[in-house]
Structures are given as structure tokens and as C-alpha cells.
Amino acid sequence: MPRTPVLWRGSLFPLAAPALALFSWLWVNSQLATEDRYWAAGSATATSAAFLLGPLTAALAAREVGRVRDASAVFGRPVRTPARVVVDAVAPATAAGLVGVLAAYLTASWHLLGVPGGPDGRFVLLAVLVVVAHTAVGAAFGWWSRPLIAIPSCFILLYCWMALPIGVEPMWLRHLTGFTDWGLAVYLEVDPAGVWAPILVNGGVLVAFALALACSAPDRSPRSTATGAVLCAAVLVPALAGGISTARHLGPDPVVLRAAPDECFDGPVTLCVYPEDLDRVEEIRAGVDLAVAELTSRGFPAPTRAIHGVGADDEETWTFTMNAFSSPESLASSIVAAQVPSMPEGCGGMGTYLTYYLALDWLTTAEDEFDDPELNEHWAALHRLPEEDQLAWFHGARDAVAACGSHLDALGPEVS
Questions:
Q1: Looking at the DSSP assignment, which residues form a beta bridge with residue 399?
Q2: Are 17 and 93 within 8 A, CB to CB?
Q3: I need a surface site. Which of 126, 179, 279, 280 has the fewest CB within 10 A?
């Protein structure tokens, strides 16, 4: 039976490690090039590289354990325990996967040089668990089936597990895999359930694998196999149930609004931004000034504060959103559009939809012709009102949309 150094020399680690590192570099570069310079987003993107790192390390592990099986057939039963044999065999594959994780985080760190904060430890733990748990599954495939079957089958199955749930129902299924490609904006933060659910599932897989190894006997006796299977089930079922329970309330992306920023700058309008935006304060100020000029010309009073984030605007406070590519002009447009509140989740009814789009179009466009004939009728009725009455209607429409109601009756019975 080959000793550990021989297993390393005959492994694919020298080829696999650079290849996985290159993939991580390409993936994280392509994702972070379009995202905010924000460590929560950088950590999630770096961990999301595991969607391919995991299946690839599983295939490598199946190949390495298959080599051990073949060597056992030629040289006889090894002196070492089955657990030691398998651990030694999968060590090169595991190391290659962890090199890929390290490359992903180094690439994210390069993108985020100078940004306050650092990698989120929860995401680092999740990335390591995904890679190691997938390696364990690959080792199981390699131990119980021939490499010709084990290598492609474990790669295909695990890749499908990582990639397909994001497009199917129920939504909580996508949050069990460990794929974290959420594109976090700087005004959002991660719901902890979105990280702990896949940690539970992948951690359960790893613990179950360790118990199976601990129970394995050199002769693969039925008793040891049955004991290992029972222990695996005793760990996997609670881990999966815990993951589902943790994630079942989550929507498509497990995010929540971040607390309002406390970095504020005095001026005609007090400007509050997140620490990640401190190098763009003058650019943001220019966008806020453009928005103030446009809205005050429409009869809106000037605010006293402008805050980066998402919230309910009022006459004293405006909120705005931006990204890495926002210009003062696009920032001003987002501030203007934010004067119309979003419809509450689950809000229905044609009256609310028409009120929302009519208010938004009145505020942000000069168009007088739309594809929807009903919207055109309301638009014409609104513009027959005096300008001060149009502004009064808009304020009433804001309140109606926020309450999931309609404000079309204020335009007259002939169009309501």
C-alpha cells in the first residue's frame, strides 16, 4: 500500500491547485467588477466560488480514493486503518480546494484595498465547510464505486446541487447549498439565517462522514457498515431539518436593510453616508444638489438631510441609493424616484399599481403617451389639474401607495 508521500506525488494536486486558484481569480474578478466596494459583498462573492470548487474537489477526491482501492486490490489490505487511508488519500484534493478558497479571498481583498472592514468569518467558515464536505462526498463515491463511475457522477450530482436550486421552488432550498452569489448593495446586510443554514447542512455532512470513517472496519463487515449508516442518518437528518428550519422564512436573497449610516457631513443639506462611501462624498453632494434643484422647482420643499439607504422619505429627510458606477446625474434620478414609496410586499389591486406608476411617471418623465390606454386616461386627467393641485395629488398618491390603496378617485369619477 503506498505511503502518504507517494500518494501526494501521484496526485493531481500540482495541476489542480493552480487551476482552481485561476478559476477563483476569474470568478471573483468578474463578479466584483460590477458590485459595490463593500466587504459583505466581497465575502459573499468569494465564498460563492465554492459552487464549482466543491464539485471539482469532490471529483478529485473520488479519483484519489479510487487509486487507493486499486492499490489495495494489487498490494493487499493496508496496515493502516480505513479512516487513515481515506484521509491520507483525500488530503491532496482537500488542499487543492482550500487553495481555491484562499485565492478567492485574496482576489476579493485586492478589490477591496482601503475599504473599511475585512472578510466576514461566517463566510470564510462556510466556504471551507462546502469544499471539505464536498470532498467527503467525493471520497464516499470513490470508496464505494469504480473511478470511471465515481468521478463523473459525483461531479455532476454535486454541481447540480449547487447550481440548480436557485431556479426552483421552494426558495429555502437555494439557501442550503452554500452558493452565496447575492450581489449585496452597501445599504444591505446578510440575514444570518442565510449563512447558518448552509453551515448546518454542510457541517452535518462532514460530521456524518467522520463518524462513518470512525466506524469502518478493515474487512468492511456488515455490522460496521450498518453502524456507520445509522450514525450518519442520526447526524444528517437533524442537520438537514435544522437548515430547513433556519432558512424557510427567507426570500430569494437572504438580505435585510442595513442600519442608517452615522457618518454625516454638514451643509445646506446634511449628508449621511456609509464608511465605504467616504471617498465619494463630493460626488454624492453634487448629485444631492441636482436633485434638490429639480424637486424644489416642482414645488417640493428642500430637505434637511439626505441619507444613503432605503427608507420612508418625508419632507425633512430624503434617502438615495447608488452603486460603484453612479454619476451625480444618476444619483439625482434615484433621489427623485425615491419620492414614490415602493408598494408593500404582497400588495395587489389595479388601483394601487396605477396610482404608483402614474405618480412615478408624473415625477420622473415628461412623456404624455404610454402603451397602457387606461394609464393614458389617468395621465390626461392629472395634467388637466392646476400645477398646485397636481402636487397635492402626488402627495396623496404617496400616502395611498404606502397604505396599499388607490388615489385615482381624486382625478374625477370619469377615470376612477
A1: none
A2: no
A3: 279
Q: Structural domain of residue 333, as residue ranges?
A: 263-337
How far out from the chain centre does Cα 12 lie? Answer: 31
Residue 292 in domain:
yes
Residue 125 and residue 199 in contact, taking contact as beta carbons nearer than 8 Å: yes
Backbone torsion region of residue 345, taken as left when φ is above 0, otherwise alpha when ψ lies between -120 and 50, otherwise beta: beta
User: In terms of domains, do 69 and 134 share one?
Assistant: yes
Tell which wins on pLDDT, 49 or 355.
49
Q: How far apart are the first and last CA of the chain?
A: 84
Please determine, for residue 123, whether its predicted confidence score (pLDDT) is greater than 80: yes
Q: What is the pLDDT of residues 203-240, one digit of tens each?
A: 999 998 888 777 765 555 556 566 767 777 888 999 99
Count of structural domains within the chain: 3
**The domain boundary residue, chosen from 277, 310, 337:** 337
| Whether residue 363 is found in the same domain as residue 220 | no
Total-model pTM: 0.81
